[in-house]
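Field guide to reading this record: the first block holds the primary sequence, the second block holds the structure written as discrete tokens, and the final block holds curator observations. Each block starts with its own label. This record concerns NAD(P)-dependent dehydrogenase (Short-subunit alcohol dehydrogenase family), catalogued under organism Microlunatus panaciterrae.

BLOCK 1 — SEQUENCE
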Amino acid sequence: MSEDEEGRMSLASGRSVLITGGLGALGGPCCAALVEAGGRVVVNDILPEQSVPPAELDRLAGYIARDAETAEAADEIVERAAELAGGLTDVVLLAGRVHSAPLLEQTPADVRDVFALNVERAFATAQAAVRRWSALGQPGNLVFVGSWVADVPWPGVGPYAASKAALRAMARSFAREFAPIGIRANVLAPGIVDAGMARKQWDTEPDYRRRAGRAIPLGRLQPVESVASSLLFLCSDLSSYMTGATLLVDGGASLYPLDPEETS
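BLOCK 2 — STRUCTURE
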């Protein structure tokens, strides 16, 4: 084993991490990276526990099937996560939703649904974590999972892009207000990830594949492992002097548009 591999295996040693939305296509590799690096990981998602493959549960410190739709529910999720993991050092707000459609086909209900999960539930869970850390006099680390589209008007996901811009502003507010008591907050902003909806659209929608293929200077969809590695960095001592920052890991997608055809 190389020194780099040995170092990575201990990056999350001593960390107790709650990840919301951890059963998704992106959540699985992120959880695996943290566990392999020595972290104790608790996942919060909405699938009933009996629906989760046993192999998935075995690697975790715990699983909480609960929707953080109220402040009370968020408090209970955070407290239960701390109980299962033997403490709580990091909270990763990964749960999210996208509704893909042209702006004139998006309804107010679509916008509300996207903001309810991407912003409101993230806020409630972060708030619950900060209350716990503050009451115990402990430091803490919040990682909000945003997106490159917070800055780029990518066609078809207007409400999603707006929700991620709101999430970044909220993360920076947490960072500003709670830095004096040792609580940090940063944003991880991936690009067009080779998983979930993006992978499906890449495979089934020629227009999407054409646009996405030109929009990524590195020329390929983002490997989920690059997102997991970036999250591991933010949940380790390597990022201990970061707060209020956005770690943009997008293969250059935010440089879009790249050619005259896209600007005409």
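BLOCK 3 — OBSERVATIONS
Residues 115 and 140 are 25 Å apart (CA to CA).
The longest strand covers residues 183-190.
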